[in-house]
Amino acid sequence: MTTAIKNGIVYQNGRLIKADVLLEAGKIKAIGTNLTGEQTIDATGKLVSPGLVDVHVHYRDPGQTYKEDIRTGSEAAAHGGFTTVGAMPNVTPVPNTPALMKKMVQENQAKGIVHIFQYGPITNGETTDIIPDYAALKKAGAFALSNDGHGVQTAQTMYLAMQKAKKNDLIIATHAQDDSLFNHGIVNEGSKAQELNLPPVTELAETTQIARDLLLAQKTGVHYHICHVSTKTSVELVRMAKARGINVTCEVAPHHLLLTDEDIPKDNGYYKMNPPLRSKEDQAALLVGLLDDTIDLIATDHAPHAKNEKEGGMKEAAFGITGSETAFSNLYTKFVKEEKVFTLEQLLSWLTDQPAKVFNLQKAGVLEPGRPADIAVFDLDHETELKEKDYKSKGVNTPFTGSKVYGATVMTMVDGQVVYRREEE
Questions:
Q1: Residues 315 and 259 in one domain
Q2: Containing domain of residue 13, as a range?
Q3: How many angstroms separate the CA atoms of 71 and 50, rounded?
Q4: In the chain, helix, strand, coil percent, each to 5?
Q5: What predicted TM-score, i.e. pTM, was given to this entire model?
Q6: Which one is catalytic: 61, 69, 267, 301?
Q7: pLDDT tens for each residue of 109-145
Q8: Hey, which of 18, 135, 180, 348 has its CA 20 to 30 A from 329?
Q9: Within-domain flag for 364
Q10: What is the pLDDT of residues 230-270, one digit of tens each?
């Protein structure tokens, strides 16, 4: 069976072209004009993109499935146009052993409707100084290493981990956080923390650990990837490190681009995230960092929680915001359509080919003949409202609900099979 996606605006090789995409046996057979198949999908006026790639999601499975599970997390990804994701290992139990890792990989494949790559932990349990057998974890299916949710507190532990990761050709993807400086903070240090009478988070909690780790990465040669950079100083540190030839990449989360601490209207748990929303100056630096290639890609840090864990004030609420289902439409609407800060081609690159390149995901992020037919189709012309009832995730913890956006996902395909299709209203 051949399927032709007809008359779309196709993102290919960094350009937008009017073309048809022909699919056969789960792969892309051809991209061109006047292509026909046994089945036709009309994409007239729609954006046809490689399936988006998100290297930072939390699926809470096993052990915390009341928040999210593999199935609902991957359905949320598909709803947002993502066909490839990287799942963090802060689950219960943490996959410290090859057996646990192998089981997680098998469960991801059996239950997920998108491609799910699994992180292994940098240290056992994510909070110890015990380094697991990276070679065995890699053999069992780990594609990278992270303690996301926790910073590695001891420099010697990180140094040894980097040496071992380098030896095994594994990326260290770090949550940069010095706990002694974070000091149980909740809101970015500044006037909003004072206004809400909430414990502040100094940017030093992030930046001092990045500075430490960049020197360790320079010494070891490991590929050091920084999750969710959020401050102006973090961007400056990465820019300097790249200029010195350090093997560093980094990501920014949509919410740090879209919001600042000034946007927090009240003591509302939906605005509690880690790193916290920063200042307008930080936000501006993040945008510059994307535009000058200091920041390599955008990743959602999709972090679902149960409703009762986010209700009430920030002191009691869990850290985290969902992002899989709102990322593309929010970013497209604000920065491409309205403010024209960057182009659609740039946005797509940061969400497709760039994350695939950084994490060496060779089958993801590109539309080319012979590649898997992982495709997302978006409606750029019609406004929609983000509604809680439409979310596929168990988590509805996002302050963007109610926003009017463009760029809703019309259809998502994985290996040529439709895994999400928008219902016509």
A1: yes
A2: 2-47+372-421
A3: 22
A4: 35, 25, 45
A5: 0.98
A6: 301
A7: 999 999 999 999 999 999 999 999 999 999 999 999 9
A8: 18
A9: no
A10: 999 999 999 999 999 999 999 999 999 999 999 999 999 99
